[in-house]
Specification:
By secondary structure, the chain is of the alpha/beta class. 43% of the residues lie in helices and 15% in strands. The protein has helices spanning 29-44, 66-70, 102-109, 136-144, 146-155, 161-167, 179-192, 195-207, 213-240, and strands spanning 5-10, 13-18, 50-55, 91-95, 98-100, 112-116, 120-122, 159-160, 172-174. It is globular.
């Protein structure tokens, strides 16, 4: 790990922090490699149940460091680092400040985005003729729909937190300075659930995009059977004995 990327496992959460405040947390090749490595390490660590990605000093990420592009740096397949990874564990972006250009793409690799009230999302690279090549043109339309995605992609305009929430781009909007705390609270909740079932349901939700309806339903059934074999029957028994009534999330593993 380099000084530009910090990764700390706290409890069951892999907290990954982009730390290049001198460049508004823009990513250069070294940081991209370290960022990818932080997620790979978290995936391999059995103690980790959830990833949380954030930026230091009130800034999420301003994208790829264009100074590196100007200097002729090799971009590779995924210049921002982890954008081609297929994560098996849930991930949450804690967004303070700007998540723009490649920073928006990093936020999009996460399953959920918690945004501070003053957070801003946008395809700011539009003005420089720099393309989205870390999943932005793929994940954004799938997340918020083609029309809204093209509005952002074509105009490059800023989208503030409240509008992002209406789009479904942000899942939660919290007071400034509270995005990481809120994301960690969600991560703690996710870590308490039976993991096999949650991850399998997540995998089905992600896989269905590439499948016709009947194949997607078949995949859901098959992976659901894996969850049943892994303990869902026991969980149903706990419910029958009175656990989780009235919508309570409490359970006894």
């Amino acid at each position: 790990m380099t000084d530009s990327i910090f990764s700390v496992v706290t409890g069951a959460t892999n907290i990954v922090t982009i730390n290049r405040p001198q460049a508004r947390n823009a990513i250069d090749p070294e940081a991209a490699g370290a960022l990818k490595a932080a997620f790979v390490a978290g995936e391999a660590d059995d103690a980790v149940k959830v990833h949380v990605l954030t930026g230091s000093e009130g800034m999420f990420c301003a994208g790829y460091d264009l100074k590196a592009v100007a200097d002729g740096a090799e971009l590779g397949d995924a210049p921002m680092g982890p954008s081609w990874l297929h994560l098996k564990k849930p991930s949450i972006a804690a967004v303070e400040g700007y998540a723009v250009a490649g920073g928006l793409e990093l936020a999009l690799i996460c399953d959920m985005r918690v945004a501070a009230e003053s957070a801003v999302f946008g395809v700011y690279c539009r003005r420089w003729g720099v393309p989205l090549i870390d999943g932005g043109t793929v994940r954004l339309p799938r997340l918020i729909g083609q029309s809204r995605a093209l509005d952002m992609i074509l105009t490059g305009r800023p989208v503030e937190a409240e509008e992002a929430y209406l789009f479904g781009l942000a899942n939660r909007v919290v007071p400034d300075g509270m995005a990481l705390e809120a994301a960690l609270s969600i991560a703690e909740d996710l870590a308490e659930f039976p993991q096999d079932c949650m991850r399998n349901d997540r995998e089905s939700a992600l896989t269905q995009w590439s499948l016709p309806m009947q194949e997607a339903l078949t995949f859901e059934r098959k992976i659901g059977e894996v969850s049943l074999a892994a303990g869902a029957v026991a969980g149903a028994g706990r419910f029958a004995r009175g656990k989780g009534r009235g919508g309570s999330l409490e359970h006894d593993n």
